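Here is the promised in-class demo. Please do not try to memorize the tokens; focus on the logic of going from shape to residues.
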């Protein structure tokens, strides 16, 4: 049996399909078969809120100030990454509007727009930049800045671009909610880093479980609510295939524009790699908690589905690119 599973395991590793991705799929399947409801859903919702606060507290505690300071002098690179993340992607999402209602459902299009407003990833952007021998210090700073800016910019973009599916209230209310649930725990982690930083750094495997567990909790509660509202009756196979194709096209455009722009502006090869990986990604770790804050529970399933798909596609594609560029840089 192990010999039969070996080729499958090798293929999954090559495609960057990790254990967490498999757990995500299992969580969606569990929510589809055994969705939580009633008092159980209320209790899980409260537990999820606490878990999200802990998640962002740990993000703050893990973030090295020294690494940020080391990369902050590269302001042109950071501006380009932020422009790609918060300007290019939203414009790309708006350009896809004619597809809403024809190729994908209006609810899925809301999820695509939400995806376009999210900040970049942190861990995978840095990991792929390192693998491809890019500017790692700048990647740490740029990806971290993207997530910090996203706490304010993402709810503003959601309020501007998205009406259907939003939880309601003004953009200021959304920012205040994000600040209370995400930014304050993040800043508390940063403040306590001098005292708990070494402990956090030495317990990364255990803290990774907290990170991923928080996301899985949100995904389970979100999909449970959506399944109870008839998610799988509203989502056709055609729309799901179209969503995968749209995600691939969006990622290809983002990678191409990031590469072309960085070369036109005269960035070095190392900086180009950083710009490509930091400017083309969207964060699942930030996106799922933000969706819970910004959208009504009944809409969450459709909203986070594009984020989950894009997340895995970007990992698969960028893993191949990072390996290729890493070999070329030797």
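The designed amino acids, position by position:
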């Amino acid at each position: 049996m192990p010999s039969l599973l070996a080729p499958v395991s090798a293929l999954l590793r090559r495609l960057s399909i990790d254990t967490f991705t498999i757990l995500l799929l299992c969580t969606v399947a569990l929510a589809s078969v055994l969705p939580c409801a009633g008092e159980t859903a209320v209790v899980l919702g409260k537990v999820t809120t606490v878990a999200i606060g802990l998640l962002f507290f740990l993000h703050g505690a893990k973030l090295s100030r020294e690494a940020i300071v080391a990369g902050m002098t590269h302001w042109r690179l950071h501006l380009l990454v932020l422009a790609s993340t918060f300007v290019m992607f939203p414009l790309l999402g708006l350009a896809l509007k004619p597809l809403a209602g024809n190729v994908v459902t209006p609810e899925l299009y809301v999820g695509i727009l939400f995806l376009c407003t999210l900040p970049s990833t942190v861990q995978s952007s840095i990991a792929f930049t390192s693998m491809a021998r890019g500017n790692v210090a700048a990647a740490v700073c740029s990806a971290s800045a993207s997530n910090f800016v996203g706490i304010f910019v993402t709810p503003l973009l959601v309020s501007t671009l998205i009406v259907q599916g939003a939880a309601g209230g003004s953009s200021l209310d959304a920012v205040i909610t994000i600040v209370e649930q995400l930014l304050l725990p993040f800043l508390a982690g940063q403040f306590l880093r001098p005292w708990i930083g070494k402990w956090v750094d030495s317990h990364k495997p255990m803290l990774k479980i907290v990170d991923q567990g928080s996301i899985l909790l949100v995904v389970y509660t979100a999909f449970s609510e959506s399944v109870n509202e008839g998610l799988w009756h509203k989502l056709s196979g055609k729309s799901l295939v179209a969503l995968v194709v749209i995600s691939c096209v969006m990622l290809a455009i983002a990678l191409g524009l990031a590469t072309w722009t960085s070369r036109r502006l005269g960035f070095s090869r190392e900086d180009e790699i950083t710009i490509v990986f930091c400017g083309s990604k969207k964060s699942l770790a930030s996106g799922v908690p933000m969706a819970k804050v910004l959208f009504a529970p009944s809409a969450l399933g459709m909203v986070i589905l594009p984020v989950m798909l894009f997340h895995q596609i970007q990992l698969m594609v960028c893993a191949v690119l990072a390996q290729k560029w890493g070999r070329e840089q030797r």
